[in-house]
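Q: Give me the 3D complex with pyridoxal-5'-phosphate.
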Amino acid sequence: MIGYLNGQYLPQENIVISPEDRGFLFADGIYDVIRSYNGKLFRAKAHLDRLSYGAGALQFNQTDFGYLEPVCERLIQDNRLYRGDAVIYMQVTRGVAPRSHAFPPIETPLTVYATARPFQPHQQEAETGIRVILVPDQRWARCDVKTIGLLANTLAHQRARTSLAAEGLFVRDGAVMEGTHSNVMAVFDGKVITPPRTNYMLAGITREFVLRLCGELSVPFLETPLYESDIRNADELMIVGTTVEVTPVIAVNGENIGSGEPGPLTRKLQMAFHRSVGFAE
Ligand code: PLP
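A: Here is the predicted complex, encoded as structure tokens.
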């Protein structure tokens, strides 16, 4: 596979990153993942805007990553990923410098890395729905920045896997915030409820897109806190994200949601999502 590092396209095995990279030493970096459907990037600009937002939040010396869109397109072409599903992974760190908590000199070049690979959608999970568990949210207070410091997410996700669940949903002060790599939406009395955007959750591109679909389909929705104590009474539950798309959730902590089967509104949004990909900007 061909990857991208600091302006160069190289065979993946020839890409070398310094052990003094601040991403390696401090998780001092951000990332994003873009899905491509039949060679067409899905919502690339929104993902790159989020990467740029993160670079601003971390006070990087460069905060506009719009130029990576043609890089992503070239990675699709060079890796012959123009048929079927693929994902592009992009990561930007504060660059290479001797280890010190203080930022390196402002002119230190960032490390900009991107790679593409084929992606196998989770068809079974999308069809039958998944089980999730609730996990305490032990992350920091800037979850709106998509940083590479993901240990709280990986630990929570592994805990879910060990409990034979497919995803963990973070709970902070009694409110369900989001999944370890997804956002969450519930249905109560025909209305879609999803937690509002705050610094304690990532503004998911898929979340935004699904809310837009709700508008187009005249499905009422509300961005309001989703409490742990209410979630068992939801009629339907789903997670949304770049890799999971719209995936029904059929049980939380071993208790069924609704009938214990994917709900009708979830199915409607899932179908609308699948119809839209490849067509939406
Ligand atoms: N929340 C978290 C913590 C994530 O890591 C992700 C995606 O990786 C999402 C939500 C969903 O975001 P998006 O729809 O932009 O992929």
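A quick observation: The CA atoms of residues 80 and 109 lie 30 Å apart.
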